[in-house]
Amino acid sequence: MNTEVTIGPAEFEQALGIAPGTLDARTTELLHSAKLTYARIDAAGQSALEAETMQRIDEGFTVVGEHRKEIWRDAWQEQLERFEASGYDLTALNPKFVDGSTILRWQGQYVLSLSNQFELRVMEILRDVLFRTYLSDVDRFFEFGSGSAFNVAAYAKLFPEVPACALDWAPAAVRIAELLRERLGMKVRGERFDFFAPSKDLVLGPGAGVFTMCALEQTGDRFGAFLDYLLQQRPRRVVHVEPTVELYDPTTRHDQLAIEYHTRRKYLVGLLPALKKLAADDRINLVYSRRLRFGSRFHECFSIHVWEPKE
Ligand SMILES: C[S@@+](CC[C@H](N)C(=O)[O-])C[C@H]1O[C@@H](n2cnc3c(N)ncnc32)[C@H](O)[C@@H]1O
C-alpha cells in the first residue's frame, strides 16, 4: 500500500473549510510547486508517537511570560545577525522554531513529512491566502509580536504600497523591520510594543489591518489588555493565527497531548471564547474561525480567527 500523500487543492480546501473546487489559481500553483508530501503512519506508529510525545512533555518545557523576554531578545538578536551576515537575504529571516521536527500533526494524525521544510511551506501558503483574502483592502498593516519580521516582509512583497509596521517587545525584532526599509526599500517600520501594556499612543486608524501569528500564544490568559486596545482602536480587520486550546477535542489521545503541551506551557487561553462573546454582544463580526488541524509534533499554532469591529 502506498502511504505517501501529496497535499493538493482538495486537501487544502478541506483544511480551510472551503467548498471543493473553489481554491484560487495562485494557491493551487503554490501548492503544486511546494510538492508537500508526507507519509501516513499506521495505528501502532501513532501509539508509539503518542507515548514518546507524552514522555517529552513530561520532561518539561519552559512556561511563557515576562521572564521569557530575555529569551526572545537573544533569539531575535541572533536572527538579526544572521540576516546581516546573509547580506539581507529574506530567507535568513525564517525562524529556527519552524520545522523543528519531521513528525507533524495533520488532520488528527501524526504524519512524517517527506518534503523539505514542510511546515514552513504550509505556513507560507496559509499566510499568503490569509493576506490576500482578509488583508488586501487595508490601508496599513500591523503585525503584533512580529519576531523575525518574515511575515511583514511577505506582506510587503505582496502589497508593496501598503505601509507595514512590525511590533514586538524585542529590540532586535524592531531593528530587523527597520533594515527591511533601509536595506531593501520596503515600506516597513518597526516599533516596540508590549502585549501586557499596549501604548495608547500607537494609533492604528480605521482602515488598518492587524495580524498576529503564534504571538498572542505567549500571553496565556493575559491577552485582555491587547484585545481592549484593539476594540478601542477599531481597525478594519484583525487576523489571528494562534494555537486555540478550545478547539482541540479532549476525547482523542492525539488532542489530549496537544492540550497537555499547551496547558503546561501556559499558552493562550480564552481568546476564542472572548471573541465569541463579543460577537454575541454585537460588538464584532467574527468573520472566520477555523482550526486548520495542522501543526508541529506538540501542538497546532494554526487556528485562524478573523474579526471586524462593528459600527
Ligand atoms: C513564537 S514568536 C512568533 C513570531 C512571529 N509572529 C512568527 O510568526 O514567527 C512569538 C513572538 O511574540 C513576542 N512576544 C512575546 N511576548 C510578547 C509581549 N508581551 N509583547 C510583545 N511581543 C511579545 C516574542 O518576542 C516573539 O517575537
Automatic annotation (TrEMBL):
Family annotation (InterPro entries): SAM-dependent_MTases_sf
Domain of life per record: Bacteria
Protein name in UniProt: Methyltransferase domain-containing protein
